[in-house]
Design brief:
The complex is a heterodimer.
Chain A lengths: L3 E10 L2 E11 L4 E5 L6 H8 L7 E6 L2 E2 L7 H6 L1 E4 L11 H11 L5 H14 L15 H14 L4 E5 L7 H16 L3 E5 L3 H7 L2 E6 L2 E6 L1 H6 L4 H8 L1 E8 L6 H15 L3 H23 L8 E8 L4 E8 L13 H9 L2 E7 L1 E8 L3
Parallel strand pairs in A: 3-8, 3-9, 6-7, 7-8
Antiparallel strand pairs in A: 1-2, 1-4, 4-5, 9-10, 11-12, 12-13, 13-15, 14-15
Helix pairs in contact in A: 3-4, 3-5, 4-5, 5-6, 10-11, 11-12
Chain B lengths: L6 H26 L3 E2 L15 E5 L4 H8 L4 E5 L2 H9 L5 E5 H10 L3 E3 L5 E10 L2 H20 L1 H10 L20 E6 L2 E2 L3 E4 L2 E3 L1 H13 L2 E6 L5 H7 L4 E6 L3 H4 L2 E3 L4 E10 L7 E2 L6 H14 L3 H35 L3 H15 L3 H12 L7 H26 L3 H10 L3 H31 L11 H12 L3 H29 L1 H15 L1
Parallel strand pairs in B: 2-3, 2-4, 7-11, 7-12
Antiparallel strand pairs in B: 1-15, 4-14, 5-14, 6-12, 6-13, 6-14, 8-9, 9-10
Helix pairs in contact in B: 11-12, 11-14, 11-17, 12-14, 13-14, 14-16, 15-16, 16-18, 17-18
Classes of the chains: A alpha/beta, B alpha/beta.
């Protein structure tokens, strides 16, 4: 029997429906990273699991108990599911030690001395034994999040839910929190982690959920999702691709207009200045010096279409230029100065003709 | 390094000193107008005061007399004789209408006042009784007593006792000596009308008290004395708070519609009190006392004579009692309202909202009078209890809003974290949310308690002798505004300061942030 079974979970808010139809089974020992664009219901899914959000329909079964049924004892269910929040949410009026011991003492009725002993062990594991008597407001973000993890672990839950645990942290503090989560994974703790840390998702988790369009769009091992995604949307997300399409209707080229488009895209996609300069140089040389003169008198050549795809992870631009008419290779004349410049600027240029002309260019690869 | 005063500090100091000097000058100028005069004489006529500012005490019929006798007079209303005399001496009004006996008494204490020979009207003073069958019976019994007293000279003896110079006999009668075979009667007076009704060192005393006492003695009643503002006497009789009332009440047709009047026990007349200097009355040369001597005399008169400091102490006790109990009950009630508002009930929320709106939108004086004269009029609850109820209601409305805003300022993540760990909503609220909210709202709450203390100064309206009222009573005896008012203000300031200290102590105890600073300090020491 799986630890958690989610069937046709749906969550509607007035105006938006972040979860349309989520189905999944979570086994004991699974470490699941949930990735996907923002606004696709990743956090909502976690919050529905421990019923901080009320699902609109569907069922969630934990250890064979339907926790979406009316009359379900929520506080008891929640004791078995720890949660770590993006904004830490440590109790401001308790010391670090108090934060960790309060629930075991209040709810599990563990004697205070024993709870404190266990809490100190946990604090040592997260590397903060000297902060036991501090108050949350005196800790750094990374320290707070480590205490929050210790607090959740202290209840000895069946599963830990992490809601973007490193999103509110300085980049310098992300590592210390991730390593604590990794050590928990190594011990076999069942976890679900909503995260934007792709490397972490790839290296630590046993399963990855890619969420999009209100469902678990793709569910697979990290290798499958990161190396060989089955679906186009997943691929684009993993590669962090951003696209620009430009159409040139006729031979009266307005290059400044094209350049403006390119610069706006560069701003959105955070393209490196050098890469942008190369792309601009390449496009202008190709269009003004080669293609427009070449195609000016070719019937059916226009419109000319340019597609740019920027990969943030690789820092490369992949460009495709297509146009109609009969076969016309602008790179054919190897001695032309422009062709030399173009070949020097791009990492690779390929020309093909198959019903229409197509130039494939890669820029920025080392 | 020693801190030295900057140039800005010196300038501020100079301005402050100048301000203090100006205030002192202004204040003493008013009192230096007070010069000794002999009796009330002069050739001025009422018609000389046409078009002038003339004062009248609220709740009397003098305004009619002024209109009838002084053409085009502009009438200003004051709530006590102490105030109206001060207004006259400081030039705010040019004269005021008053009973001749009351003025005679004033002239014993204050030299700057005289009166016109020409009387405005003559009338009697009577006791008022409720317009019920029992009231009528009691009224007839009382009238018979008065008529007999007028015939056999008993009343004349009393008159001589209270208008005479011998203060040692002018005491409050021993109420416990009455047999009370036929029950105890409640007499309500305004104890600011010497020598008819006023505060002596052992309680309310005066001519009208003595008459009532003799009546009770003769007819086998007990007697209980209530003190209130003059405006409140007739409403108290009508609503049954008191069995009869006095305080130089003049029977009029209008009043007779709501109460029964006894046979008048005193024939008085209304005169126009004016500044002695205005009517050319020669001021008696005062011996030249130095300012410290004057202050010492004034202090002796206002606080030592007739053990008036005891009145002040009683007033402080009363003010503190009302403030502390209202704050305690009000806080508990406010907390309950907060809990109700958190409850998942639209109706409870609406009711709480309505409650808070109504109480925040009602002036405290009005609320207090509604409670005293309408809601609890016949319940026999003491006025102090009514005041505590009123201020509890008022304070709870404000305190619950303060608490609500404090709770609202707590990050919702605190609640979510507690719920996610398995705490119930209530546990989350009491363990984590409210303790944090308290730290946020206590500073504002402290201010609200101090303003509650100051607001209690209006309880004089429902016949409670709190600190402010005691100050008024002393002023009405001594006709000196300076010391009673300044002392009252000072005492309020001290009480507010004490309250603030207590609240600070409480705040320090609940403030976890302070513990955090301590812990941080310890850590630093360890290193």
């Amino acid at each position: 029997m799986s630890l958690i079974k989610i069937e046709h979970l749906r969550k509607e808010y007035p105006g938006v429906t972040p979860l349309k139809d989520v189905c999944a089974e979570i086994e004991k020992g699974d470490v699941i990273s949930i990735i996907g664009p923002s606004g696709t219901g990743k956090s909502t899914l976690l919050r529905c699991l421990n019923r901080l959000e009320q699902p609109t329909s569907g069922t969630i079964t934990v250890n064979g108990e339907n926790i979406t049924a009316p009359g379900c004892n929520l506080p008891l269910v929640r004791r078995r599911m720890g949660m770590v929040f993006q904004s830490f949410n440590l109790f401001q009026n308790r010391t670090v030690l108090g934060n960790i011991t309060s629930a075991p003492v209040d709810l599990l009725k563990i004697p205070k001395e024993q709870a404190e002993k266990e809490a100190m062990k946990l604090l040592e594991r997260v590397g903060l034994p000297d902060k036991a008597q501090s108050y949350p407001q005196d800790l750094s973000g990374g320290q707070k999040q480590r205490v929050a993890i210790a607090r959740a672990v202290a209840m000895k839950p069946d599963i830990l839910l992490f809601d973007e645990p490193t999103s509110a942290l300085d980049p310098t503090m992300v590592g210390e929190v991730l390593s604590v989560i990794k050590s928990l994974a190594d011990e076999g703790m069942t976890m679900m982690i909503v995260t934007h840390e792709m490397r972490f998702a790839r290296n630590v988790s046993s399963r990855v959920f890619y969420m999009d369009e209100g469902i678990i769009y793709e569910d697979g091992s990290p290798d499958q999702i990161f190396r060989n995604p089955q679906k186009e949307k997943t691929r684009r997300f993993i590669k962090q691709l951003k696209q620009l399409a430009v159409e040139i209707p006729d031979a009266e080229l307005n290059y400044p207009e094209v350049l403006r488009n390119l610069e706006r895209f560069a701003g959105d996609a955070m393209i490196q200045p050098t890469l942008l300069r190369h792309t601009n140089l390449f496009l202008e040389e190709l269009l003004v010096q080669r293609l427009i003169p070449l195609l000016r008198n070719t019937p059916g050549a226009f419109p000319l279409r340019i597609t740019l795809e920027h990969s943030e992870t690789d820092e490369t631009i992949h460009m495709e230029i297509t146009y109609g008419g009969e076969k016309a290779d602008p790179m054919a004349d190897e001695d032309d100065l422009s062709v030399v410049i173009l070949r020097k600027t791009a990492s690779s240029i390929q020309y093909s003709y198959e019903k229409e002309n197509k130039i494939t260019v890669l820029l920025g690869a080392k | 390094m020693k801190k030295r005063l900057t140039r800005t500090d010196w300038i501020i100091l100079a301005v402050l000193l100048a301000l203090v000097a100006a205030v002192v000058l202004l204040a003493t100028q008013g009192s230096s107008n007070t010069q000794g005069t002999t009796g009330g004489t002069g050739n001025a006529k009422l018609s000389d005061y046409a078009g002038k500012n003339i004062g009248s005490v609220t709740g009397t019929t003098y305004d009619e007399a002024i209109e009838a006798n002084i053409p085009d007079a502009k009438i200003s209303y004051y709530s006590s004789y102490g105030d109206i005399l001060t207004a006259l001496l400081t030039g705010k009004i040019d004269g005021f209408c008053v009973d001749e006996p009351v003025l005679r008494y004033m002239m014993l204490n204050s030299d700057g006042v005289s009166y016109l020979q020409e009387r405005m009207e003559t009338y009697g003073f009577a006791y008022a009784f409720p317009k019920t069958a029992e009231g009528k019976a009691l009224c007839d019994e009382f009238s018979a007593f008065i008529e007999q007293g007028l015939a056999d000279g008993t009343l004349r003896e009393l008159d001589e006792k209270w208008f005479g110079p011998d203060e040692s006999v002018q005491k409050s009668p021993d109420l416990k000596a009455l047999s009370a075979d036929r029950g105890t009667l409640k007499l309500i007076v305004n104890a600011e009308n010497p020598p008819f009704d006023h505060m002596a060192d052992n309680g309310i005393a005066g001519l009208e008290i003595d008459i009532a006492y003799l009546f009770c003695q003769k007819n086998g009643y007990g007697l209980q004395l209530l003190n209130s503002n003059f405006d409140a006497i007739l409403p108290s009789i009508q609503s049954g708070v008191a069995d009869f009332g006095a305080s130089c009440i003049t029977p009029t047709e209008e009043r007779a519609e709501s109460v029964h009047f006894s046979t008048p026990h005193y024939e008085a007349g209304a005169v126009l009190a004016v500044r002695a200097a205005d009517v050319g009355v020669q001021a008696a040369q005062q011996e030249n006392k130095n300012i410290f001597r004057q202050i010492a005399d004034s202090f002796e008169k206002n606080f030592i004579r007739e053990a008036r400091w005891k009145l002040v102490l009683q007033g402080i006790g009363c003010t503190c009692l009302i403030t502390v109990l209202s704050a305690l009950f009000g806080t508990v009630l406010a907390f309950l309202i907060c809990l109700l508002r958190r409850a998942d009930s639209v109706l409870a929320n609406k009711i709480c909202d309505f409650y808070v709106r109504v109480l925040q939108g009602t002036p405290m004086v009005v609320l207090l009078m509604i409670l005293f004269y309408i809601i609890f009029a016949r319940s026999g609850i003491s006025a102090v209890a009514v005041a505590i109820i009123g201020f509890t209601l008022n304070f709870s409305a404000y305190a619950s809003e303060i608490m609500r805003s404090g709770i609202g300022s707590i990050d919702p993540g605190q609640r979510e974290a507690a719920l996610a760990m398995g705490y119930t909503e209530n546990q989350a609220f009491f363990r984590f949310i409210f303790p944090q909210a308290a730290v946020h709202f206590l500073p504002v709450y402290r201010g609200e308690i101090v303003s509650l203390l100051k607001n209690t100064s209006i309880v004089g309206y429902i016949a409670i002798q709190d600190l402010t009222k005691m100050g008024d009573i002393i002023r009405s005896r001594t006709y000196e505004p300076f010391f009673p008012l300044i002392a009252t203000a000072l005492i309020y300031f001290l009480l507010a300061w004490l309250l603030s200290l207590v609240m600070r102590w409480i705040m320090a105890r609940v403030d976890y942030r302070k513990n955090s600073r301590k812990a941080a300090g310890k850590e630093a020491d360890a290193k």
